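Hi R.,

Here's the chain you asked about this morning:
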Amino acid sequence: MNYIVSEAQDAFQKQMVELQIDSLKIKDEEGKVVTGMNLRATALPDMWLPQFMMYANDTARLYTLKSGEKTIFEVGFEYDNRTLTGVRAVELSEDVTKEYGYTHGLLDNEFIKERILRHTLTKMVASDNGFARLVEPDTFHLADENDKYVRPMPVDLLVASRFREFSLNSDRAFEISLSMTNEPSLEL
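And the predicted structure, written out as tokens:
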């Protein structure tokens, strides 16, 4: 495991502890409890860590659009069928970085980085009665037939995916607020 991936694992596991979700139990696809494993294990390189990293990088890119798109982790994402999510975080050569359109430059504000990691976990992990439910984010990665690496989403698709995510969340909040009263009122 390379240093960047190891650092990412530690950072996400630290945020899980701080959010007090690290000990949530895991169920498999069939609903059976996976013994000896809690949410912290999902932040391993062969599990959900690459997905967490990709979402965090996309969030950082959105946050830094005006100043020149920066990421949190200087890695690429290689397709790999041997991992749970089908991708692996890897260091890229300069040629591959250019060919696939990866962003250069790292976000250097530690406070914002930490907030983006927290945001990533709150968006991608739901708690259901003491069990973690991993939520796969909307992604619209364009790919050529023989791609070895995930191409970062073009900015317009990235914005659209986050707007869709926001809209779905606001629809639910709107439904809840309307259900709290029998008669809608326009009073403030």
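Helices lie at 3-18, 49-63, 94-100, 110-124, 155-179.

Let me know if you need anything else.
M.
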